[in-house]
Amino acid sequence: MSIEAHDMLSSPALAPFEARRLREMALAAGADDVGFVSIDDPAIAFERAEILAAFPFAKTLVSFVMKMNRENIRSPARSSANVEFHRVGDETDAVSHRLARLFEDMGRRAAYPAMAFPMEAANWPGKMWVISHKPVAVAAGLGKMGVHRNVIHPKFGNFILLGTVAVDVALDSYSRPLDYNPCLSCKLCVAVCPTGAIAPDGAFDLSACYTHNYREFMGGFMDWVETIAQAKNAAGYREKVSDAESVSMWQSLAYGPNYKAAYCLAVCPAGEDVIAAYRDDRKGFLETIVDPLKQKAETIYVTPDSDAEDYVKRRFPHKSVKRVANGMRVASIAAFARGLSLRFQKKRAAGLEAVYHFAFRGAERKDLTVRIANGRLEVKEGLIGDADLRIRADAQTWLRFLRKETGLLRALITFKIGLSGDPRLLAAFGRCFP
User: Fold this and answer.
1) CB 381: neighbour CB atoms within 10 A?
2) Is the whole-model pTM more than 0.85?
């Protein structure tokens, strides 16, 4: 038995583990930095139940970061960026494994979720991951979220991947969140994003990012499969999918999913190790790092009639636009309510001011009030105030209508959906959520 194992097994069951010692173990396992969060920390309260469902012994979450090579991520050659994502991603899981093994060898319990894939695919289209690494890392003092929705480490910048290990020991001390945000608010991520997903005011269009950057993941993959299924023959398939796209999908299936554009990471100058090139020569930084990504000729995948489609045509006319489905099909009324804020298109909502009441009955019962005004969306439980349009619907019929499996006229005739108010507002609502 090792000295560490003897010390652990001979110590009182409730004696706190030294944070200093755990930090040394994590760094020895290969982490580049590490922080600790109690399972009872209010900052991760929204994660607690799910974490304990998977790891009921968890008392502490060990959050750690792994550095990536910056120049790989910055390269316009996406193969360069993706090999770095996969290589460091594999090493992140390996560090989690080594740290969990150290605990097991000491007679204690520890486990970890995947850094990324595989995930809990049976939960699709709901939350597929056991632990949200980003909020845990922020609570552990390893960085703050930037405008681009990535964690920025104070030293390494956003050129990091995150891992989390759940362990069954309480610590004698825990990490504290950073008291400042390393994000420079330089808006370079806004300028380089090919879909306009990152807005200057801090708003984020998840649908735009998801549709393009994750084209060969999950929803985009399903759209590709359905394209195959709908093609009458090989020639019909090739009319919809180029040979290069087929090869790219094969590459993702064979070697791991490939991101289309992690440009927001590539251009971020924040972090002590990163900022010098931007601070000392901003013009050179723009010319060598930002401009090549902006000028790259490539295909941008967009949802039809979306803000992203308009943005690409206006901002990057040299890039090709391809209309696709993103697989974000609504499986339940609860998912419909949650997904409204994720799919909302603020530019398409310009000029619309309306309040909608949704009363769903049948398999799911839920009342919602949705207010759209000044390009902003507000969703609340219950029927609040007066509505410009009231929608009463059988839950399953409404979901089939959203998936284009049944027509609105038929649903109205059969009284599965009822409208009170100006029916044109329903079409206006649909334009905000393509």
Assistant:
1) 10
2) yes
